Amino acid sequence: MATAPSRPAAAEAPAAAPAPAPPRTGEEILRRVRAIVPELRARSSEIERERRLPMDVVELLRGTGVFRMGFAHGWGGPELSSIEQTEIIEAISYGDPAAGWCAMIGSDTGLYAAFLDEPVAKEMFPSLDMITAGLLFPTGRAEIVPGGYRLSGRWQFGSGVTHADWVISGAFVYRDGAPEPGPEGDPHDSKLMMVPREDVEVVDTWYTTGLAGSGSCDYTITDVFVPAERTLTFDTVRNGEGPLAQPEVHMRNMPGVPLGIARAALDHARELVAARGKGDDYRTQVVVADCEADLVASRHGVYGAMRRQHELLAAGGTLDDLTPEERAALPLSRRHAFRTARSIVGRLYDLLQTSSIYQPSPMDRWLRDTHTMCQHVVAQERILQSAGAYLLGAKPGFPLCLGITAAKPAGAARPAS
Fold this sequence. Notes:
- By secondary structure, the chain is an alpha+beta fold.
- The protein has 3 domains: about 25-125, Orthogonal Bundle (Butyryl-Coa Dehydrogenase, subunit A, domain 1); about 130-230, Butyryl-CoA Dehydrogenase, subunit A, domain 2 (Beta Barrel); about 255-400, Up-down Bundle (Butyryl-CoA Dehydrogenase, subunit A, domain 3), CATH 1.20.140.
- The chain contains 12 helices and 9 strands.
- It has helices spanning about 25-40, 45-50, 55-65, 80-95, 95-105, 110-115, 120-125, 255-275, 280-315, 325-350, 360-375, 380-390, and strands at about 130-135, 140-145, 150-160, 165-175, 180, 190-195, 200-205, 215-225, 230.
- Strands 1, 2, 3, 4, 5, 6, 7, 8 and 9 form a 9-stranded mixed β-sheet that branches.
- Strand 4 (about 165-175) and strand 5 form a beta hairpin.
- Helix 5 runs antiparallel to helix 8 (about 255-275), helix 8 (about 255-275) runs parallel beside helix 10 (about 325-350) and helix 9 (about 280-315) runs antiparallel to helix 10.
- The longest helix has about 35 residues, at about 280-315.
- The chain is globular.
- About 45% of the residues are buried.
């Protein structure tokens, strides 16, 4: 019997390249972020059209290490300062504002871990690259039951909820259907509740003027059991210490988004001016320089306030050791960054005239994005009232923006000399 010819051996598939080691420093995360900025910019129209981050963009961001930057060294994390975190969010936002916004929100996971018992947090976050989304203001209802709470409600502005691993939500606490009093004489207690993303239903409401790609949809949670150990309040640090174990830490890197957009808009305007040969035009020179001056001053205000805060906290001090002006500068500089970015983009939009109005132009998207993000509470008059009241020894309406979580006597203002 004839022997069948032998088949050639199948070529072995090439071995997959090993995944890069997780970044351990701010410099490495920033380097990785800058490497993906061109792709983020190229996909901005797609991100806006999809009204959420495509999952491969989420994974692109995850690969930079941005979502792990708040985890402490003791966890194997990079434990980046708020200054470093803001610089990284600024760089991502330079590429795409929605990506920057979602990175800013999603990177809070490691910050929340400090307000949970360490064994609980480590069980919840087996990977340092997990993403948390959700609305912190208490709009839900948490009924006390044995071992925890039954949580129900509907929340708005769940930025990144379409790709999150965990969802954190504020809720008022009830016992047997009646409001549960809180500490410090609060007539109604509230807590932050963390639930797995699979226990959350997304309601697709995110049809907006700007920041469309952030996917900041409404979401609902219906009668979900939340163990008591998966709840937190910002007045109690349960593990960790230092500059990041502070009640307002999750607000600090927010100005990276508007600062990144303002820088992108200025660079874009200068490139267009150069391409048109309009660099000798007097009005153009004045507008560009005026916008540059505003960005320099606003950026200096943000980083200067955070640098002073970090210096004091890293030396073992507390937020109460800041002078009233230094403490007020933190929320005020954040608000000013948002408002200044909107002003810069608006002036450059006018300067570039008709080329700004077509949607393929990034100026159109940046104009809408900056107007939308200025509706966030950190950019609103409530911040001015809170800082002003604090400086005058009166009651802030939003004390958390100043890092105040408990009732304190009004006394920030210095006595008259």
